[in-house]
Amino acid sequence: MSDKSEPISAEEAALLGELRVKIDDIDQQIGDLICARANCAVEVAHVKKRFSNITEPKFYRPEREAQVLRNAMARNKGPLSNEEFARLFREIMSACLALEAPVKVAYLGPEGTYTQQAALKHFGHSAQAVSLPAIDEVFREVASGAAHYGVVPVENSTEGVVTHTLDNFLGSSVKICGEVVLRIHHHLLVSDVTHVQNISRIYSHAQSLAQCRKWLDAHYPRAERIAVSSNAEAARRIKGEWNSAAIAGAMAADLYGLTSHAQNIEDQPDNSTRFLIIGAESVGASGEDKTSIVVSMKNEPGALHNLLEPFHQHGIDLTRVETRPSPTGAWNYVFFIDFAGHASEPVAKKVLEEVGRRASDLKILGSYPKGVL
To answer: Is there a contact between 316 and 259 (Cβ–Cβ < 8 Å)?
Structure first.
């Protein structure tokens, strides 16, 4: 068989030639506009530094970023999906922001985890992303000012809430500045030494093993399932084990040079994880926001009803209610509540005042833009 490409007709060559000239012209315009946007970002930095009375003015504004992405998607005429359109704009914004001041982001590591993927989805690849081994350390890094922002998981659509993240808010001063919802696709990864027909152990994080339980029962019922600290750690381990496989994402496969033996093996096709962006400062209203609070109530009959009643009376949509044991005493509980709207809005203000009067303690964790895809 010849390896030469099939010859094309003169008509096809002419049409392709015209399209390529058109693409080159469009590329020139795109390049010029990206450069113009970058120059505007540099000018923004100069203006902020000139008029700021602090040494390090705030360059990254979550509410402004969300508005820009929403506007970009509203202008999208296809054929690219809104998600892909937003991803392209995010990377342009990330590169431009790095010209003003690099954003340092701490995330629950190690490298190759879904949390790193969420950090890159939200901040783009021009951010300085630093992996840390524990959720507590991400909170401490942000609270100390060593990182501008942090990214931590808070809930999975299949396995529920990440309680350790919620508990950290009880004793921390950090604010919630944003959220990222990431569609989770698990792959069965193998290395170049894996004997695929003899896989007898499968490594992954405990939640990922749970999210793929039915698939594992059907395809590897006799394989030992070994829970490790992260999916990235699972991917790292199988490099030297001929009888092992790992459940992890595409990023871990690329990082450790592995092959995807089976793709999208999660039991629920809409499996997704929500991550929170934490920072030191409050965020202004973006027009489409959520607010998170934590409330301590007296241990008495009807406490939960009394807590939720003001939201119902004022027509505020509750998006999540979670209960956690209070650190202040046995059989006392705190309630983590998410609701639609910004705390600065008149109706939300009124509700929070009423809740504050009924509660023994109320803490606003933050108002922030709803996740953009």
So the answer is: no
